[in-house]
Structures are given as structure tokens and as C-alpha cells.
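Why do we care about 3D structure at all? Because function follows from shape, and shape follows, mostly, from sequence. That is the central idea of this module. The next example makes it concrete: a single protein chain, its amino acid sequence, and then its structure expressed as C-alpha cells.
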Amino acid sequence: MGNGDSAPDGRFGHEAALVGNRLFIWGGAQRHKGPCRFADRRVIWSLDTTTVRWRKRTARAGTKQDIPPSCVDARCAVIDEVAYSFGGCTDVHSWSCLNDVHALDMQEIRWKRVEVSGDRPTERTACGMCAMQGCLLVVGGYGRQIAGRLAAGAQFVANPEYPHNGWNNQVLLFSPLSCSWRPVHTKGSHPLPRAHHSLTACKEHTIVLFGGRSQRGRLNDMHTLNMLTEEWSLVVLSTHLQWPEPLAAHTTSCLSSKYLLILGGWDQHDTVTTESYLVDTGTSSAQRINFVGHPAMRANHSACCQQCEDDAVSIIVFGGTKERVYSDKCGLNNLNHHSPLYYKRSMIFPPNHPQHPVLH
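And the structure:
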């Protein structure tokens, strides 16, 4: 790795965005010599993936309100070189969460609080969020009780220990053009209310939801949402062999319109999984995979996809934790870029070895 401005401190529950050949990292929870603390979200780290050099920047802002509060488990998605950040938890003891939207201009490195018109979602953390057709799509999360009438298909399940908080499976759409939210009235096989799941844009109009944490524990179901019909579908497995175990705080990366890569996460035993899975959405099957230079297993990390030459995809993994969250040992800053995870679509299943994907 090049010298540059050294490298970011280890962290988990942070935000990461890839724009061109630059990876941006900010926020999350860190630990030095004392207890974990939340990182200042004005500090933006960027990595040039070509030279493998870090650069530390301090984001500008017009007013103090434009700077997002320090928190963990906020979610971000990029639209037109602007990273939109939503939600997050500012206090894990009182479960104080956020529901505002902040925009980070990736060219100017400037924060701006988005003035939302109309109703806002309730405060929440660890929701699923991705960009879809120029809008932000948000599903689920953990946070304040949702008052009033819910949209079709939406549910809220209270946490018995904290009855004013709980899990939901709301589907919400935010338009940066109108600066407004609207609920999506979905139909079909709705996923259970959950948080710490993954939400991945897989095809032009389709998103994939996997796993997460619900009142029942960790999950390993997979659902797809067609945004044209606004209908959920449960992925019916062709075989249970090698299907991912129940996971939360994992990452799911879209390698192509057919293949997904699931990395890390917490399993049912509160330990970090040692498995990685390649999911074939065409056949509704999966297989455990191992690759050279595999990153240390972790949870609450980030994984960003970068298109490479020869129709390959590089997965850039950063941060995470391998201990119980908020323990004395937390935060990794391992960047698996000297030997990133390469997946070649044209060589995914060699004819002589259909069970072994080619990963370089």
C-alpha cells in the first residue's frame, strides 16, 4: 500500500462508497485504548484504487446542521456522484436513532443536510438501502415504533425488552429531486421485519434482500422485490445443500445479474462466520467458496464492487469487527486490495469442474 496519508483507523458499522476508482470511507465506531467511540463524519478517507494510496480529507459544510451526527450503522448509496446517508444509531444504550438525510458531494467533499418535504420515516438504524432508478430504496431496520397506518405489506414488531423500539419491514422510496419520501405499497411474499440485512440492486428493476436479525433471531431467507410490479417473491431453494447459514451484519455483492457473493456476518451462535457463499439466483442455489488471499472473517464491514478489465469484478473489503460489538476488541482496517477478490464471469464454472468457481 502506498504511503499517502497513512490509513484509516479500524472501524465497524461505517459507510463506504465507490465512485470511479475512488473508495470513500467515513463514520462508524472505532476503538483506540479506551471504549469504542463513534468517528467524526467530517473526516473522509478516500482510496485511489489504482495507486492504492489513501488520502484524508475534512469535509466542508455550510452550517453545523449540515454535518451528520456521529453514529454507527447508518446506510449510504450513491446517485450521480453524491452519497446520500440515512439513519444510524447515536447511542447504543438508549437506542437513539436518526431519520434525517445528508448528502455528501463526492467531488467537492461537502456535506449538506437535505431539507425533506412532507412526512419522514421513523428513526431507525441498520436498515437496508440501495440506489434504484435515481432514488433511494430503504427496507426495514430497527428503531422507534411506527405510529399510524402502515402501507400495504408493512409490519412493525416491538422488542419485548424495549417496547417502544422494534423491527420493521417497511419499503420506502426517497426522491432526491423532490426531496420527499413515499411508502411503497408492496404485495406478494413479504419478508419478516428485520435489521442488519443486506439489500442489493441486482437487475435494472430488481433488488435482493438476504438474512438479517429479527425478533426470532438471525435469518437466512432471500427475497426479491420487483420495483415495476412492487411485488415481493420468496426465493424457493432448489437445494438446501450449502445454502448460507442464518446471518446478520454481512455483505452481499452483486457480481452479475445472476451471481451474488455473501461475505462475513454474525451467525446464530454470536460468532463471526468462517464461510463465504456464491449464490446463483438463476438456479436458486449456493455453494461455499474459498479463495486465495481471503480476508479475515468479520461482521459489520463494507464490501464494494469495482468493474475491472476482462469483465472481472473486484470486491474491496474494509473494516468490520470479529468480536462482540462494543467489546474491548473491535475494529479492523484490513483492506484486501493487494490481492482483491476477483471473479471472472466468463470462467465462473469451468466445464470439467462445475462445482469450483474460478476466483483469482
